[in-house]
Design goal:
Strand content: under 5%
Shape: rod-shaped
Number of domains: 2
Structural class: mainly alpha
Number of strands: 0
Distance between the termini: 59 Å
Radius of gyration: 44 Å
CATH architecture of the largest domain: Orthogonal Bundle
Largest sheet: none
Length: about 190
């Protein structure tokens, strides 16, 4: 901000004060009465080409008004900057939402493909274990993960499952039985 002299500040402040009506004169009345308030001439107001002297109180008020004007300008600029930042962030958020929506749709498609493929494979494996002797199937299933065995048993005939469960390790059979009793399903993608 350029450095101002005392006279230029006083002149600016006086103009500001006139516009704000600080001197107590109604500009409508001035216009109606030919430019001067009643019982006063333009010369008495100090509005001629010569400089007018101001009292300390007037100078203080004018300086406070100038400080307030500068403060309001800074606030206005800060609000404009914040508004621009909000608009920018809103645009970025919209982009992110669109990206996440696209990813969600892709994941749903992939999960559907995987689930269908896994179900088909589990059906085939279940048929293989059903065709095996219960002891041989139990020996193989004892080495598999409990959740895989659980998924296989859900696809198998319950009578065949019971015979294989008899031959399974007792701890594994207990765990699988608990899973079957609770019917824990894998989470599905939200719709």
């Amino acid at each position: 901000m350029p450095i101002r002299t005392k006279n230029s500040i006083q002149s600016t402040l006086f103009t500001t004060a006139l516009f704000m009506g600080i001197l107590g004169y109604s500009y409508i009345a001035l216009a109606q009465d030919g430019g001067a308030p009643p019982n006063q001439s333009v010369e008495n107001l100090g509005l001629t080409g010569t400089e007018r002297s101001y009292s300390e109180a007037e100078i203080r008020i004018l300086q406070e008004l100038e400080v307030r004007r500068v403060e309001l300008e800074r606030r206005s600029q800060a609000l404009e900057l914040r508004e621009q930042l909000v608009d920018l962030m809103e645009g970025q958020m919209t982009d992110k939402i669109n990206q996440l929506t696209s990813l969600r749709n892709e994941l749903r498609t992939l999960m559907g493909n995987i689930s269908g493929k896994e179900d088909g494979e589990l059906e085939q494996l279940a048929q293989v274990y059903e065709a095996m002797k219960p002891g041989a199937a139990a020996t193989v299933l004892d080495k598999l993960d409990n959740f895989i065995v659980y998924d296989l048993f859900r696809k198998m005939n319950p009578k065949k499952t019971a015979k294989i469960m008899e031959a399974l390790d007792p701890a594994k059979a207990r765990f699988i039985s608990e899973l079957l009793a609770e019917r824990i399903d894998l989470p599905t993608a939200p719709q």
